[in-house]
User: Which sequence fits this backbone?
């Protein structure tokens, strides 16, 4: 079966129907995971032992199990428990829980990479601990955090493909429907791969722009 | 609540076997191909370097599930008769090879340049510098991130359930369809993955302790 480049022009519009869902899910998952990671890292670095142990347990639990199994657990589990979540919501929750744990570790590494003396210097010039953290430590930590955060964003974008198994009509789902109906499989998956490469490339270009604006030194 | 898990234990174990088999064969493919890509990046000529970069760019941008689907749908059309198990292991291996390449490249670059120069100064040839000086030091650095990548690979094997391979996730879904007990079954499946991955990460921690220099 020869590769027909002309078919691509007909496949792309069909796939594009799933693009909005993929982009919405990716954006929501990235923003919510980055936000959810803030309470997680606070719990992780808390001096109150039970809380830090509990947070560590959560992180180990989600990091050592596949996000797909988590999606099934939430999707089929919610239906069983009587409040059926949509595939989109179940997928989103699983992506946020999984990636929030990874991002919390990124935040922790960023905060710990700032020398202790910076905090001490802030306290020495009379700042309160909260202010010293906010004005002195946080801006330096944020710069360290941006590059790995961008990588995690790409992981999230790629993992949104998994909600296709929960019948969410995003890019991969559309491609599969098309592949089941037609015989143009080479063209379909070629076009699908191009879509994902385009999305991740644009995302990493945006992240590089942010790095440049924040003067991240690498 | 555990009676479902106990009743379906033999089925789940058959799934675990498939998962472990895919993990093992996938990790072998990923390691070999990862070394090849890292070498192409570090020591290759311009053509090899561009080829390696292009490969990494594609794999970094495309979801593993899409590659698995592409294999599943396209290979029969291409007339290639590959059984799903080998196909799955191959795709998983080639996908995670990109991450392995990062690990090996980083490890080799972590060895200071002076080590190469020192080797040359005492008159060693490049292959011997690599095998006797660079690799022993690089492998120490590579241990922990290597284990991390294998853990990602274990989690990645769960995707083969979507293309119909009877791994532990697939078996879990089947049991749920019959028993309607998603919490127990997927909870049990998650525990199985946890045991595999956590054991691996303990190995990683042990490696890190054993091979780190005394500072």
Assistant:
């Amino acid at each position: 079966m020869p590769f027909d480049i002309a078919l691509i022009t007909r496949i792309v519009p069909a796939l594009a129907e799933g693009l909005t869902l993929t982009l919405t899910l990716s954006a929501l998952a990235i923003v919510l995971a980055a936000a959810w990671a803030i309470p997680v890292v606070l719990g992780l670095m808390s001096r109150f032992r039970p809380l830090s142990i509990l947070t560590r347990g959560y992180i180990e639990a989600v990091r050592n199990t596949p996000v797909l199994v988590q999606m099934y657990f939430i999707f089929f589990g919610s239906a069983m428990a009587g409040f059926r979540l949509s595939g989109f919501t179940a997928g989103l929750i699983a992506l946020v829980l999984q990636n929030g744990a990874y991002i919390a570790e990124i935040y922790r590494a960023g905060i710990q990479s700032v020398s202790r003396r910076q905090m001490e210097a802030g306290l020495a010039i009379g700042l309160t601990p909260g202010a010293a953290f906010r004005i002195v430590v946080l801006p330096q930590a944020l710069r360290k955090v941006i590059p790995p955060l961008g990588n995690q964003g790409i992981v999230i974008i790629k993992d949104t493909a998994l909600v296709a198994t929960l019948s969410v009509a995003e890019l991969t789902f559309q491609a599969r429907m098309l592949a089941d109906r037609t015989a143009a499989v080479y063209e379909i998956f070629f076009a699908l791969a191009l879509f994902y490469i385009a999305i991740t490339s644009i995302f990493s270009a945006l992240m590089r722009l942010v790095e440049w604006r924040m003067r991240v030194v690498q | 609540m555990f009676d479902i898990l106990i009743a379906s234990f033999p089925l789940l174990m058959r799934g675990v076997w498939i998962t472990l088999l895919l993990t093992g064969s996938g990790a072998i493919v990923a390691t070999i191909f990862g070394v090849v890509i890292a070498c192409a990046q570090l020591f290759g000529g311009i053509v090899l370097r561009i080829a390696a970069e292009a490969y990494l760019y594609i794999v970094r941008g495309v979801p593993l599930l899409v590659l698995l689907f592409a294999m599943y749908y396209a290979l029969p059309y291409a007339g290639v008769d590959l059984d799903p198990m080998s196909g799955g292991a191959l795709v998983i291996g080639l996908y995670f090879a990109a991450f392995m390449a990062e690990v090996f490249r980083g490890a080799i670059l972590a060895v200071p340049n002076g080590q190469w120069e020192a080797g040359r100064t005492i008159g060693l040839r490049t292959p011997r510098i690599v095998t006797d000086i660079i690799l022993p030091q690089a492998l120490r650095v590579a241990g922990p991130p290597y284990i991390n990548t294998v853990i990602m690979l274990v989690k990645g094997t769960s995707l083969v359930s979507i293309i119909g391979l009877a791994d532990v996730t697939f078996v879990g879904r089947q049991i749920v369809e019959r028993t309607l007990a998603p919490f127990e079954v997927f909870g049990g499946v998650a525990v199985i993955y946890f045991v595999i991955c956590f054991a691996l990460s303990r190995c990683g921690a042990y490696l890190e302790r054993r091979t780190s220099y005394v500072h």
Q: What stands out?
A: The domain at 2-214 of chain B is CATH 1.10.3720.10 (MetI-like fold). Chain B has a mean pLDDT of 88.
